[in-house]
Write a structure and sequence with these properties.
This protein is about 35% helix and about 25% strand. It is α/β, with parallel strands linked by helices and about 475 residues long. The protein folds into 2 domains: about 170 residues, Rossmann fold (3-Layer(aba) Sandwich); about 290 residues, 2-Layer Sandwich (Dihydrodipicolinate Reductase, domain 2). The strands form 3 sheets. Strands 8, 11, 12, 13, 14, 15, 16, 17, 18 and 19 form a 10-stranded mixed beta sheet that branches. Strands 1-4-3-2-5-6-7 form a 7-stranded mixed beta sheet, sandwiched between helices. It has a two-stranded antiparallel ribbon with strand order 9-10.
């Protein structure tokens, strides 16, 4: 057990040192925000601190078990503190010990707990943290199975009782092309009405392609070995799909309450594996051998098969939607994670493509359903003025099938910057002491959808 109250630069080289216990709770001043980071095994925990925030104390209290995860987290924070442009000045106060969670609850050094790491106990941690009267900002997924969903559902009820805010980190709502897809879908003169679609031809499709080997904050990302264990990270069908399901709800029924018991009908689901060789595993994790907990997924002694892929069809208020995620080892040179999204309207389709033609950058297209729609261009031009009032500089250019939405570079802030934007929004919720009425029921609906998809995919497999 270790209590470390040192600047990050020292922490990363003095993890064996032991300091005196620090005193006092940081929650005495209710208007002051002090962050607690719980077991930061995922790099998203650091991205929340890539910038400073006016109302947030520079002291952050980290509670984690001893091991490489916390060390990697501290190095990432240190890289932000020491960068040449706009350096941060976080002071990481670290406690490592087997009782790290109990210690966090007992000490209450802060009032907002950031959770981004191993998901095996996340739902349990979320529930017990809000029960202790602490706010929680959690990375997705909060639940990786039905048991976790039930705990999360209880956690939201407990958060309301304790008057704390539980929220998850939905970065994709801040991607500019997705924002504009949503904006145009709300302009009836352009989009018309959202189609109902069919399972074979859904009204809404969202597909995401990801890679295990990637750069984060300019460096090759070292993955913890547990990230490749679906019992700890969660299967692909309940992980990245959290974002996609969130976007389906957020775009199709903006700021409307989704009732998971009435509005969602699962139609079909499937899952499949991504094979990873031992050498690829070693490149990702810096470990020479598969740990024992991964042996269950290893075939022929050297191929790890991860259930990181999944797709499912479902109906949301009668609208047919399809969501899918696939993972590969490493993207081809010059490419990266990609996103495809289509919303089909009675007058136009809104499509985000991110392939070779788009140089692997997301681009939004507006394509009229009928080529003979003579008045469409005039209505689109009128609608553009309203969009430009909100997003100055956005323009349209003609394509063979319709129009491409031209987005000024200033709006392409990048995935890592979206974490700061989520944090800013959450801080505003904390200041107002409430979230929009639709946020909590829709988070519950989202995790019901993903965990139901996993359940259906397992049931649908041949015996």
């Amino acid at each position: 057990m270790k209590q470390l109250l040192l600047p990050v630069a020292l922490l990363t080289v003095m993890m064996s040192c032991k300091n005196n216990e620090s005193g006092g709770s940081a929650t005495a001043d209710s208007s002051r925000i002090t962050l607690i980071t719980l077991d930061p095994g995922h790099f998203h925990a650091a991205l929340v601190q890539k910038e400073m925030y006016a109302d947030v104390d520079s002291n952050v209290y980290v509670y984690a078990p001893e091991g490489p995860d916390v060390g990697l987290h501290l190095k990432r924070i240190e890289s932000y503190n020491t960068r040449a442009e706009h350096p941060t000045h976080w002071k990481e106060n670290v406690y490592t010990g087997a009782d790290f969670f109990q210690k966090m609850i007992a000490e209450k050094k802060g009032n907002v707990v950031v959770m981004s790491g191993n998901n095996q106990k996340k739902a349990e941690y979320v529930l017990n943290t809000v029960d202790a009267g602490l706010n929680v900002l959690a990375d997705k997924p909060m639940a990786i199975d039905k048991a976790g969903f039930e705990l999360v559902k209880t956690a939201f009820a407990k958060a309301a009782e304790k008057k704390v805010l539980l929220y998850d980190i939905m970065t994709e709502r801040f991607e500019i092309n997705t924002l504009l897809q949503r904006e145009f879908s709300q302009i009836k003169e352009v989009f018309g009405d959202l189609e109902k679609g069919t399972p074979e031809n859904p009204a809404v499709t969202k597909e995401s392609v990801h890679y295990l080997y990637k750069l984060v904050s300019g460096a090759v990302l070292q993955r913890p070995a547990w990230f490749l264990d679906v019992t700890q990270q969660g299967e692909g069908i309940v992980d990245v799909t959290t974002h996609l399901v969130d976007l389906v709800q957020w775009e199709c029924f903006p700021e409307q309450v989704i009732d998971y018991q009435k509005d969602i009908e699962m139609v079909a689901a499937k899952r499949w594996t991504t094979p990873i060789t031992l050498s690829q595993f070693s490149d990702l994790t810096k470990q020479a051998a598969f740990p024992d907990y991964l042996k269950k997924d290893v075939k022929n002694d050297s191929i790890l098969n991860i259930y990181s892929n999944g797709s499912f069809n479902y109906k949301l208020r009668g609208v047919n939607a399809k969501v899918s995620v696939t993972w590969g080892y490493k993207a081809p040179e010059g490419t990266g994670d990609t996103h495809y999204s289509i919303m089909r309207g009675t007058r136009a389709n809104l499509i985000i493509r991110q392939g070779a033609e788009q140089k692997y950058k997301p681009v939004l297209y507006i394509e009229p359903v009928k080529k003979s729609d003579a008045g469409f261009e005039k209505d689109l031009t009128t609608a553009l003025a309203a969009i430009q009032a909100k997003y100055p500089g956005v323009e349209l250019t003609k394509t063979a099938a319709g129009w491409q939405v031209m987005v000024p570079q200033q709006y392409n802030t990048g995935h890592e910057a979206h974490f700061g934007q989520v944090m800013q929004r959450y801080l505003q919720f904390l200041k107002e002491k409430k979230m929009p009425d639709w946020e909590v029921p829709n988070m519950i609906a989202k995790y019901y959808t993903t965990t139901s998809a996993l359940e259906l995919a397992k049931k649908s497999e041949p015996k």
